[in-house]
Amino acid sequence: MFKVLIVDDEIYVVALIQKLISWGKYQMEIAATANDGVAALSLVKEIVPDLVIVDVRMPGYDGLTFMNEVRKFNTNVKFIVISGHKQFDYAREALRSNVADYLLKPINKEELECAVRRVYEQLAETQQRENSLKEISIQLDAGRKQAQKIFFEHVLKGDISFPCELFSINEQYLTHFRPGIFQMCALVLDASANISDSGKTVPLLLMEARTVLFSALQELCMEILEYTYKNISFFFLNYTVEKQDSLLPVLKKHLENCERSTKKFAGLSFHICLGSLCNEPLSFSDTASSLIKCLLSRTALWNKKLLTPSELHTAPELLNTIIDYRKEALSNALASLNESEIRRCIKDMYSRAYYVLEEDSLLYYRLYVKLLEKIYLYFHDIGVCNESETAFKERMLKLYISASSPQEYAASLSTETARMVAENQLSADSRSTPPPIRIVKRYIAEHYSEDISLSDAAKIVNLSPVYLSRLFKKEEGINFLDYLNQYRIDISKNLLKDVKHNILETASLSGFGSTKYFSKIFKKTVGITPSEYRKRHLGTNGGEK
């Protein structure tokens, strides 16, 4: 509704104006009335009316002075001036004040309604125009945010080559980059798992902190993009070389303010991570990748609140030392689907990694990736995990980058493993046969014609030959070699029924190294020789050699 203020020193005139018009017809309401210019001016500031109907002659301020005072702080309000004077000077001054209409007393209903209608049409047109502009602005802003979200996805994944020319990037992503320095940074709010309301507290605190930081960075940057994912706000900065030395002090000051704001929240911690500097679009992926390394290292270098690429260090050889420590135990735990033992192995590896973090700040991350690969390979092989390895890693790495402690890394791996163990247990097949035995049996079915040994099969399922042999005998009732020979004999029976294969070819195709050994095993298993078996089924000695 449009708001109307009526100002006249004659009370009955105010009452008359209120009654003469059906204000709702024009989407208007009487918001207030006043009997002098001073009170009216105060009301204009308070209620911000859309239309003021004002008398020329009033105590305090006269009508013309009142309108001039209002125009000093509000140029949008419409005026209808009423007066008992016909002098041209009044009308001329009123017109100079850009009034909508000038009416003479006594007030005529038709004239007043006509004036109000014209004002309504002007207000409605202005409102419609403003709404249209606002809608366009919202759509443009939404389009820009979406384009910049895509920009962040591209630059963080590093899976796209950006155009060399800035104008092409600006056109594609609706940015306003200019020549200078480009650098990524991230504001992270980590919350320990024991914070009960972190789902509410973290987003609110992060929103406040990123808003303040964005405002501070705007004073330094020619262009700044922002994208928030869970507990991390990413910033892509574009600033001049002259501003380079000003960035770190701004970030440090912001961190100090953030730390003060989180003192009353135990378990909350802010970090800022920086990517490397670059000066051309071709190097955008470099600043992104160095930023990601800092993010991945922040739990290892937990005492560094402001982390830069120069503070990272690596010792790749340490990973194998950590893995080998519990490698066999983890393989056995996976083979037996022992969820608690899997969890223990993962926890032990992360505990061991803690003591060598000073040598390799990315060790937590590399251990996570290695364990992901091992877990995926195992559950994929037994038919539980149907995701592609790329999709699986991408999903799990999102959990890693938003986690705030090594305990959460181990927990996410253990939780995912537990989920797949539970999924595996829903399968009737998985209840009857352990996954390693299914894998070995499938391997035999696909490679029976090749030279297969117990050691080969054990490597496939990451078990020792001795352990696999015991497990196989327990589940199948016969040992590995007897099962393999039985499978090959079953294959040879079908081959012997086809005259196009002689005994030598049958032995080779079914995986036996020699005809003599084949015949020996065949007779032991079937009770007759291969030749006799063929004669019984074909009624001929065809093809025997």
Describe the structure.
- The chain is an alpha/beta fold and 545 residues long.
- α11 packs antiparallel against α14.
- The chain is elongated, with a radius of gyration of 41 Å.
- The longest helix has 49 residues.
Short synopsis of the structure:
This protein has 545 residues and is of the alpha/beta class. Helix content is 58%, strand content 12%.
Structural descriptors:
545 residues, alpha/beta, Rossmann fold, Alpha-Beta Plaits, 4 domains, five-stranded mixed beta sheet, 10 strands, 58% helix, elongated
Annotate the secondary structure layout.
Elements (H helix, E strand, L loop, with lengths): L1 E6 L3 H10 L7 E7 L2 H11 L3 E5 L7 H9 L6 E6 L4 H9 L4 E4 L4 H49 L8 H8 L7 E11 L6 H21 L2 E9 L2 E8 L4 H18 L6 E7 L9 H14 L8 E2 L10 H18 L3 H16 L8 H19 L7 H14 L3 H20 L2 H5 L2 H13 L6 H7 L4 H12 L3 H17 L6 H7 L5 H12 L3 H9 L7
Parallel strand pairs: 1-2, 1-3, 3-4, 4-5, 9-10
Antiparallel strand pairs: 6-8, 6-9, 7-8
Helix pairs in contact: 2-3, 7-8, 10-11, 10-12, 11-12, 11-14, 12-13, 12-14
Subcellular location: Cytoplasm
Organism: Mediterraneibacter hominis
InterPro entries: CheY-like_superfamily, Homeodomain-like_sf, HptR, HTH_AraC, HTH_AraC-typ_CS, Sig_transdc_resp-reg_receiver, Tscrpt_reg_AraC-type_HTH
